[in-house]
Amino acid sequence: MRSALTWAARSAAFALAYLGAGRLGLAFPTVSPHITAFWPAAGIALAVLLRWGNPFVPALAAGAWGVAWSAGAPAWLAAAIAAGNIGGPWLAARWLRRAGISLRLEQRRDLWLLIGA
Among 34, 40, 88, 93, which one is most buried in terms of CB atoms within 10 A? Predict the structure, then answer.
């Protein structure tokens, strides 16, 4: 029971953090209402997926959907944008884990892996 409550609390926190970071990114000058050059939410998604893994993909996807929907995208487009916004960090986290990254970033190799991702 406690682990389920911990997961739910973290999921809510991650979704809200992603939503806030996404809204921050969209506050900068953009090409369109849904595209921006500054996207801090991707860093949050990558950090969450590297640290806690796949159980938090739905929470991040909910936050990504919320960002796109609050920017005026129809529900179907918001879902497509959310899939892309979470798919990239998910693939990067998966690749980094396969490459054997140490999350402590103590070696140069780990830093180069992170930059490469």
Answer: 93
